[in-house]
Amino acid sequence: MSERRYVVYYRVSTQKQSRSGLGLEAQQQAVTDYLTQYGGQVIAEFQEVESGKRADRPRFHEAADYAELANATLLVAKLDRLSRDLHFITGLQKRGIRFTLCDLPDVDQLTIHILAAMAQHEARMISQRTKHALQAAKARGARLGNPELDAIRHHDLATANHQRSQAQAQWKQRIQRVIQYLEEQEGLRSGVAIAEALNRRGLTTYQGRPFTSATISRLRSR
């Protein structure tokens, strides 16, 4: 069984806490204790000074992007260092980003299961309501179906192409942030060194291929 890889995220609420170590030292100790007990490899660390009420936290999004691209687990000392907002948590779940809390290492799985069950229940209820509405409309003599189906299919194809382009653009933004992290935090400069670092972490290009210096050069130019 391969060793689990972690991207660690620390957050303090004020600059004073950041300078004094209040809160941060406790989080670092919690991470150290967790790794001592459960093992694992830390492949990146991100630290932020920001209120947990804000959803637009740049360092958190960098950490989440890094974890997603590297197929790693986001490791946080406590839930309140991540967020108390359920919408924020469900956003991670929808993206498929795994996260672990050092003080409650099983709560992430439990939370995800509960949220997934709630979403599945709601989807089932919507499906049932739609089915009942169609049955009622048919009973009233309404004509079901759409005479403009060909136009809709063409629109759906255009929409799918647009969504694919958006997904590729979002991937480029995420991988460019990872490259910036490697440049600023690990001091990597050459395309070869950055490509090797990305490949070691299990990251791939949008097409699922290993990175090369040429790939890095194209990403940097954008």
UniProtKB/TrEMBL annotation:
InterPro entries, alphabetized: Resolv_N (IPR006119), Resolvase-like_N_sf (IPR036162), SSR_resolvase (IPR050639)
Domain of life of the source: Bacteria
Xref: SUPFAM superfamilies: Resolvase-like
PROSITE patterns (alphabetical): RECOMBINASES_3
SMART domains per the UniProt record, alphabetical: Resolvase
Molecular function terms from GO: DNA binding; DNA strand exchange activity
Presence of the UniProt keyword DNA-binding in the record: yes
The Resolvase/invertase-type recombinase catalytic domain, residue ranges: 5-141
Keywords (A to Z) from UniProt: DNA recombination, DNA-binding
Keyword DNA-binding included in the entry's annotation: yes
Any Pfam family hit: Resolvase
Name used for this protein in its record: Site-specific DNA recombinase
High-level lineage: Bacteria, Pseudomonadati, Pseudomonadota, Gammaproteobacteria, Oceanospirillales
